[in-house]
Amino acid sequence: MVVAAALAAMPRVAAAQALDVAPVAALPAPRLSFSEQEMQLAQQVADHPGLADFYGTNGLKPVFTGAEGAARRAALIEALGQAASHGLPPTRYRQAALRTLDREGADTVEEEIRFARAFADWSRDVSGGILDPRRVEPGIKREVQRPRTGDLLRAFAAAADPVAMLAALPPQDARYEALRQALARQSQLVAPGDAPRVPEGLWREGTSDPAVAALRVRLASVGFAAVPMGSPLTYDGALAQAVAAYQKAAGLPADGVAGPRTVARLNRGTGPEAEAILVALERMRWMRGHDLNARHVWVNLPEFNARIYENGREVFETRVVIGKANREFETPEFSETMKYMVVNPRWNVPRSITVKEYLPRLQANRHAVGHLDVVDGAGNVIARDRIDFRKYSAKTFPYRMRQKPSDDNALGQVKFMFPNPWNIYLHDTPTKHLFNQSSRAYSHGCIRVGRPVDLAHELLKGQVESPEAVFSKALKSGRETYLNLRPPVPVHLVYFTAFPDESGQIRRFPDIYGRDALVHAALVKAGLDSAAADE
Q1: What does the DSSP assignment read for 195-234?
Q2: pTM of the model
Q3: Of 216, 386, 389, 534, which sits with the fewest C-beta atoms within 10 Å of its C-beta?
């Protein structure tokens, strides 16, 4: 134990470097004796690598307890009180218990560790999310670039202003703040328990009924008061305006009519709107480590839309078609870097499509799908009359299929490549009519682009004098041509069913793959598990 504690007390990186380059005699002598408090602290953090890292490099000295730690305790307690505003479960951080310890002085090792563990949980969750996205749903491939707990705690301990340090942990993005404000508004829409419920019905201007009086009172309880123009039982113009204002705040069509949806929303607490915002906040935290002010491509799958942003401002937008709502074809979520585009691309048919869709047709008629070449492993085109397709199964079929560059090529005139393990990319398509539909989930997983040539021009801006001329020359050649992007452009395939537009207004999109429901359930479970652990 003494040796382990001595190693913990020595900075790990420095120790490793010293062992590599210094003779044994020159190494710093290890500490062989420790105070009871230091030994106790080392034992308490042994099961938490991040805290062990910090206290090991801090000489096993406390930073939260005693008068010296008072400002840090106060800053942390204040930050934990904001958990609900970030859509994080307040029970997870035990703010009330820490506040009590702070009032009592907080001067023991156990109390040091309680504050340290709360800091570790909070700094991890608010900066990079409470969940590991890859464990929530198979289609979420995103890997969060989380900060190291030891590094964060070192920065916190050294900070002249610990409040400011903690305030910098959440995403510093205007859209994240817009989501927080929207969540606060949703919470304000929950009526107090003593407010009367509105009877079911369809209430509109001109109606006179006791239910209208209940509607007035319940609306007023959530901040949408309407002074009666006459009898409080009459649905007048002022009440219609108040209902419309409430509907807009609640994300409902603002027609000023208290129909079944409006009444149901008014009678209950927070609903799907708030849940979507909670999930969106978590998803924004997953984006940590990506510079969203830098130039990037942002594809929001539920919106069926792709944009290019520069310096936080949208400079390009296009509709897209994404993968079908089928587990096999759903487009995954991840971030990568677009390195090049291919003009006049060949289409190398994915094996799954080859053996599931085309092989049965070839077995029935070897001349089927004549627009595709059958090629061997070396890329040589094989004449179909030399192949007995009937003797192969999906597992044993030894050939690939490929389509030459052409006007009806499945990839159209251009594809945009950001190499990834799932072989997902953006591309043109000859099937243009799908872009006129409101729901556009029809592909096998890749993303079809509504304005592919305009996208190519926009991506080439800044690296060539005339993007249009460069692209046109490559296209007219008729040959498969690679155009590298300098510098490469980050691409983020994201999944937001609630997201602010440029005005800050929250827009809603369908949960086409059911992923939001799973993320919300995981967030609820994290809160419940935290509460149970604290009992």
Answers
A1: SPPPPSS-B-TT-B-HHHHHHHHHHHHTT-----SS-TTB
A2: 0.81
A3: 386
